[in-house]
Amino acid sequence: MTNILYIYDNNLYVNLTNQCPCRCTFCIRSQKNGLGSSDNLWLEHTPTAHEVIAAFKKYSLSDFEQVIFCGYGEPLCALDELISVCNYIRSISDIKIRLNTNGLGDLINCKPTAPLLKGVVDAVSISLNAPDAAKYLQVTRPSFGAGAFESMLKFAQECKQYIPEVKFSVVDVISKEDILACQNLADRMDIPLRVRHFNS
Ligand code: SF4
């Protein structure tokens, strides 16, 4: 099965699923171009952990700085597969593992997910996207509706207990005032914020 793994910079990316409960206004899934070494990140089906591990066996992890779970979908939609694949990676390498997530894993899986990531990933980057619940709805358009923003913040707060490196990100499609408000929110939560340029 193709499109599961792709290379970008010195990192090996895992495109675990195409499922996502959001429809972010800036989502690159609507673009025709792929990412990094892949020209297409649409999957034939959501891969099993066995299929993902088989894909890993074609690469040498010593060639990369990090393994990053990030593709055309939300990795926490495939929580069990994520954990199984990370356990496999841990069994063969001490490479850094990062999860890029929209932070809605608790709503997706109907349970607290941050504790389940302890020892599974080394770093998590959570899409903050907006400084308040109303603007978050406008930017990310989550299927969960109101409450998604607070759930994302709760997940981020809990991640600090279980994951060594926790960061927020925003894409600079929002106003400078909103980016500043996001920075203030991130500062209050004591979580670093990375401002990403659109398409970067
Ligand atoms: S959370 Fe990520 S994959 Fe989902 S719509 Fe937003 S940008 Fe796209």
From TrEMBL:
SUPFAM superfamilies: Radical SAM enzymes (SSF102114). Keywords: 4Fe-4S, Iron, Iron-sulfur, Metal-binding, S-adenosyl-L-methionine. PROSITE patterns: RADICAL_SAM. Signal peptide: none annotated. The keyword Methyltransferase does not apply. Residues 6-200 form the Radical SAM core domain. GO terms for molecular function: 4 iron, 4 sulfur cluster binding; catalytic activity; metal ion binding. Gene3D superfamilies: Aldolase class I. The keyword Iron-sulfur applies. PANTHER family: 7-CARBOXY-7-DEAZAGUANINE SYNTHASE. This is TIGR04100 family radical SAM protein.
